[in-house]
Amino acid sequence: MKRTSRLLGATAALAIIAAAGAAQAKELKYAHFQAADMSSPKHAAALAFETCVEGKTSGSIDVQVFPASQLGDGGQVIEGLQLGAIQMGVVHDGPISAVYKPFAVFAMPYLFDDQAMAWSIVDGAFGEELFDDMRSQTGIRVLGLADNGVRNFTNSKVPVAEPDDMKGLKMRVMTAPVWTKLVESLGASATPVPWPELPGALQQGVVDGQENGVTNIVNASLYQHQKYVSLDGHVFSWHAYMINDAFYEGLTDAERQAVNECVEISKVIHRGMTAAQDANAATILGEKGLEVVPVSPEQKAKFRELAQPAVREYIVGEIGEDWPNKLDAAVADYRGQ
Question: For the chain, which domains are there?
Fold first, then answer.
């Protein structure tokens, strides 16, 4: 009886210790907008982050993943990050540049040659300086960028192979003015539509088309209400891995190291899946029933001649010349390697 009593007492003590440990775990709510399946780069990366962090910290951080805009659209997630109601979010460029204007510098069209160039620049000194400035202004720390896909135009009306084909089209754009400027510079009209409302806007004919990377076109089934895709690759778009800075600073050194290391792993998964889809855009979107419109280098030059000066002028008017000049310098340095 005494032995049984001692065993019960020990079991109870262990249960109390375990409960105390669980109670002390730091809750990390992690929000993103893609569907909750393993074909979604954001979700595959999020689950990898969850497993990685909880393993490295022995459960001292409890990661809770909220996919499919469960905690709101991009703007609402950013607001939650600033308030600390959401600890971590992976949000695309449009909503970020609405809160931190210099992020709009990444909307400069026809700038990067390929993923290798884009990754090198955002992972290097330029990205580090920009993200440090964003942290100081917003209270949100950018831990890294992963691909939102090379953005291409789709529409339900006409094949678009050159800028003249854009005239008369109503195009959905992300909710930041720089994207409106991009589309309008090419002769179409622009309608800002939040991401969760985009499929409905296409289905109902509120807009004729939109611009996104392969990942998002497939993930949200945008192809269902579109007929043509033009592979012009106008912008290398990004998802930013962001964390509330006060929460991050409140972690122990070991916990911060775990978060940093696990973001790097997640970023590689996310980039790899998205880049693979971009590289096979014609096949993937063709199999979804879209008519693929190739854009020749000569036609792409026409898009660049119209869009790049207009967008750059707008960006400079909004944020000054400092960040655009620094980005131009980073691109020139990369090409000079």
Answer: 25-330 (3.40.190.170)
